[in-house]
Please model this.
Amino acid sequence: MTPDASVVVSSSQLRFMARINELHNKQDLLLVKLLVTNSPVLEEEFGAALADKAVDELSTSLERLGTVAQIERISKGLFALVATDASNPLGFVRQVKSIVSEFNATKRYRFLLEVSIGAVVTDRSAALGAQDWVARLNLAVMKSTRTGQAELADNHVATSEQVRQELARLGLGSTPPEGMYWVFQPINYVATGEIYGYEALCRWDSPTLGSISPELFIQLAEDLNLVQIIDFWTLKAVEAAYPELIARGGQAISINISAQTLGNDHEFFSAVDLLLPKIKEAHFSLIFELTETSVIQNQIDLSMGLLGLRKRGAKIAIDDFGTGRTSLSVISSLPTDFVKLDGSLLQVERPDLSRGLLELGMKFAELVGAEVIVEKVETQADLDLAKAVGAQFAQGWLFGQPVDLRPRTESQVKP
Model:
């Protein structure tokens, strides 16, 4: 009788944890996980038997690694290794990558094995157990799956695990975690410097974890399929703030929105339906920003979501243009009212090249019928360059830091 798969996986994981517990109080260990990321695809295209045979051969090859005290096959495409020499983790990871490359180079199969590799070095002086180290190891593997590079867990990964745990407690109906708030960065006319609008930016100053970068918590929220909740909270923050922003001269407010939200969050669209009539009555515009790097997966759902927002009277912006890997043909197929040129284009060492890249972005915007916002304009030289290429709007600290509309505490009020 074939053993139940869940029992096999559970026993393998338990053996892996037991080995860590046995050794990590005696010496620092190097823990590595290798995930064959395309294993499900191989099973579907070439059959489970052939795919499993290839992964078995890879497992045998991994046994050649020195200083390995334990190799466990946690699941069909996931391996966990315990190495007793933690002095050169990057060198060990290179050996693992080399074994995979050698396996693929043999051409014994009609396919290649694609892998993600995560690693962590335990520290005997830290008051952490096997579960803590494995949690960091799992995050390193997840990050490797996103980046395509082997990832060695560090203190940043430890912070990521704590943030992930905080976010994992959220659900529909949750209120924002303590310390999460929104500020509003000005967007200005290039020609006059006057206010055009504001971009809503989420910030999180956690009482326990300190200031957490948006790049970290937004990415983790996407991994946990929870970013829709943050997008919903942002919409509510805009609803509370837009009267004050109008009083400050704003004509528009932009919101970053995830492709996940556009694809499946009906509650978000219902909230948009309630907010837009109020905003339009105040002669105010609502702009939804989609990052270029998020324009990747289901193009049909994405386009339909953006068109749905446009039909409701909202406008669409492509954010961080010039930094993603998405083809221009894909972006040009989306409804677009604004193209936001990434500020890194202003930082190119050769001024003529910087101007040329901005002009290419301007030309693209012209072809799709969009206006241009140049981001991270921090100096007069940046503004002069945006003006020289004909950009309509600019955004950055040259025009002031983001506006914080939270009530001031007594300690913040000057006597």
